[in-house]
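Tutorial handout. Part one gives the primary structure; part two gives the three-dimensional structure as tokens.
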Amino acid sequence: MVVIRLARSGAKKRPFYNMVVTDSRNRRDGRFVERIGFYNPVASANEQGLVVNTERLAYWQGVGAQLSPTAARLVKQFGTRAAA
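Part two.
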């Protein structure tokens, strides 16, 4: 099954997550098909904390990719913020 989830990168105590499309059997930080955005939980006020390519997200959901619970929460948050 294809899933859309977060892959952790960044330094110790300074997380940075890539939102990736991957096979569910791959490891969290392992091989992925496509990077469709990123999430920076420690972004300062002038930096972007969340960026998602909505066209690619819609495409992957259209072909059956499932969002992880955390990715779904972030996409929902991104959608409400983008509409405002």
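Part three, for discussion. The mean pLDDT is 90. The longest strand covers residues 2-11.
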